[in-house]
Amino acid sequence: MKVKRVYSIAIDGPAGAGKSTIAKRVASELGFVYVDTGAIYRTVGYHMDLMGIGPKDRDGIERLLDDVNLELCYGEDGLQHMILNGHDVTDEIRTPAMSRIASTISAQPCVREFLLDMQRDLARKNNVIMDGRDIGTVVLPCADVKIFLTASPEVRATRRLKDLERKGEKTTHKAVLADIIQRDHQDSTRAIAPLKQAEDAILLDTSELNLEQAIQAVIALVRQRIVL
Ligand code: DC
Predict the structure, then answer these.
(1) Termini Cα distance of the chain
(2) For a disulfide at 190, which of 78, 107, 131, 148, Cβ 3.0-4.6 Å?
(3) Tens digits of residue pLDDT in 111-168
C-alpha cells in the first residue's frame, strides 16, 4: 500500500509577529491547510469565561473541559472559523480581554494536554502550516520546516494597534505595547511548553520587512526545504 506523504510547516513566535497573516497567505499559495492554534486556546478561554470560570481556576477548568466541543471549519474565504459547541465564535475570541485569558489559560497543563491530539491529528491528515507558540518544540517536533517569526515589541504593538483600530477598538500604542510585553513574558516563562525557538527552527525577524516581503521570505524558506 502506498502511504501518502503529508508535509507540515511550524511557525512559532510572540504575539503580533504577523504569524497568522503570513501563514494564511503562505497556506493559500501552497495549497496547505492553515491552522491557527492560538484561536483554539482562545476558544477554550472563551468557553470558561462564559461559564464564569477564571483562567487560573485549575479545578474548575478541569471539570468543564469535557463539555468543550471544538471544531475548526474553513469558509470559502479560506478563513479558519472556530465552532464552539455548535456556535461560531470566530469574532468573539478576537478581543484584548480574550488574548489575556487565552495566555493565562494556556499555562494550564490540562488545557495543553486536551488540545495536543487535536492539533497533531490535523497534521497527520493534511499538509498543514500551523502557527502558535510550541508547534516546533512540542506539537510537531518533526515538522518539515520550522520558522520562528519575530519582530521588535514596538513594531508588533504598532501592527496590533492598526488591527484593533480597524475593528473599531479604542486603545493606545502604550496600552497595546504593555499587553504584548506582559503576554510575551507569561507565554515564555510558563512551566509547560513555553514560547521558545526550536533548536532547528530558522529565525526570521520581520521588524524591517513589509508584509509582502515577509510572506515571500517564508515561501522561499519553505521551497528550499520542501519540493511540492
Ligand atoms: O496566537 P494568539 O495570540 O492568538 O494566542 C493566544 C494565546 O494562546 C497566547 O498568548 C498563548 C496561547 N497559545 C499557546 O500557548 N500555544 C499555542 N500553540 C498558541 C497559543
Answers:
(1) 22
(2) 107
(3) 999 999 999 999 999 999 999 999 999 999 999 999 999 999 999 999 999 999 998 9
Tell me the pLDDT tens digit for each residue of 86-107: 999 999 999 999 999 999 999 9
Ligand 1 centroid to Cα of residue 1, in Å, is: 38
Residue among 19, 20, 62 nearest 44 (CA): 62
* Buried/exposed code over 14-39 (b: 16+ C-beta within 10 A; e: otherwise): bbbbbbbebbbbbbeebebbbbbbbb
Q: Is-contact 157 176, C-beta < 8 A?
A: yes
Query: What is the 41 CA–ligand 1 centroid distance (Å)?
Result: 6
Nearest CA to ligand 1 atom 15: 106
Strand spans (E) along 94-177: 128-132, 145-150
Torsion sign, CA atoms 37, 72, 24, 28: positive
**Are the CB atoms for 82 and 72 separated by under 8 Å?**
yes
Does 37 sit in the ligand 1 pocket, CB within 6 Å? yes
Cell of 122: 490535523
Q: Ligand 1 within 6 A of 103 CB?
A: yes
Q: Please give the grid coordinates belonging to residue 111.
A: 488545557
Residue 86, number of CB atoms within 10 A of its CB: 7
Looking at ligand 1, which residue's alpha carbon is closest to its atom 11? Answer: 103
